[in-house]
Amino acid sequence: MIDYTEGAGCQYHIGLKPGEVGPYVFLTGDPGRVKDIAAGLDEPHYVTTNREYVTWTGSLAGKPVSVMSTGIGGPSTAIAVEELFHLGCHTLIRLGTCGGMDQDVKGGDLVIASGAVRMEGTTQEYVPIEYPAVPDHHVVCALEQAAVQMQVRYHIGVVQCKDAFYGQHEPEKMPGSAALIGKWNAYLAMGTKASEMESAALFIVGQARGLRTGSILHCIANQERARRGLPNDQDHDLQPMFDTAILAMKQLIKNEEH
Ligand SMILES: O=P(O)(O)O[C@H]1O[C@H](CO)[C@@H](O)[C@H]1O
Ligand SMILES: O=c1cc[nH]c(=O)[nH]1
């Protein structure tokens, strides 16, 4: 492959060099959210910005930990995971927002993904569609333990990943609406918890490269509750998700000391 690092090891898209990022990384879609997540680290400092990738680094339990944005969707997330792998990162936790699907998932609830529906395009360039996108078991357990400790409302289950945000919210306006609505109803019937856009890429690239991955998501609102005439309050306070993910990462770091 062509060496895009120009020999210095600086990764072509994320703009990071060896030593600038910890082996433990929080990923989130929105670049504007990175500083707020990094505020939960010890001694956080800004590292760099390139394209949609903003990075801060600090530490937790004495180990270097970074926070980086991925931008929206599978393509930019897969690139982020590949380039972090080049830099020796091994544990990646996504913190993102989602829309509830299962009617028990309310605005403000957290969803820990136990798997992701691969209704996006990126992962189909990695492995045939029959292969499941799953996170690392230990990361999922650490996220659940942290959610219990934080006393937040949480759900564990499958999330749906797609490429078109408006295909989720306005499928009836799409020329291919029948197929979209048919799939959505099948996922609902299987108890899918929520819809978002990056976990499938994170899990599949992580599985392909031997990394530990996991996702914890904050439900903004639930369109299925609205459709059924149930209360559907929106919630935009992401701090409980940040605190839960930080606690989980700390525990994963401490577990490695034994
Ligand atoms: O809040 P983030 O991490 O961006 O995640 C969700 O929000 C975006 C859509 O609004 C998509 O990226 C989706 O996955
Ligand atoms: O409804 C939502 C909310 C966040 N992210 C999504 O992909 N969908």
From TrEMBL:
Q: Does the keyword Cell wall biogenesis/degradation apply?
A: no
Keywords of this entry: Cytoplasm, Glycosyltransferase, Transferase
What is the annotated localization of this protein? Cytoplasm
Cite a single GO BP annotation: UMP salvage
Q: Which enzyme class?
A: transferase
Q: Where is the Nucleoside phosphorylase domain?
A: 24-223
Name the Gene Ontology molecular function terms of this record: uridine phosphorylase activity
Q: Which reaction does it catalyse?
A: uridine + phosphate = alpha-D-ribose 1-phosphate + uracil
Q: Which family does it belong to?
A: Belongs to the PNP/UDP phosphorylase family.
- State the protein's purpose: Catalyzes the reversible phosphorylytic cleavage of uridine to uracil and ribose-1-phosphate.
**Per its record, how is this protein called by name?**
Uridine phosphorylase
Species in which this protein is naturally found: Catenisphaera adipataccumulans
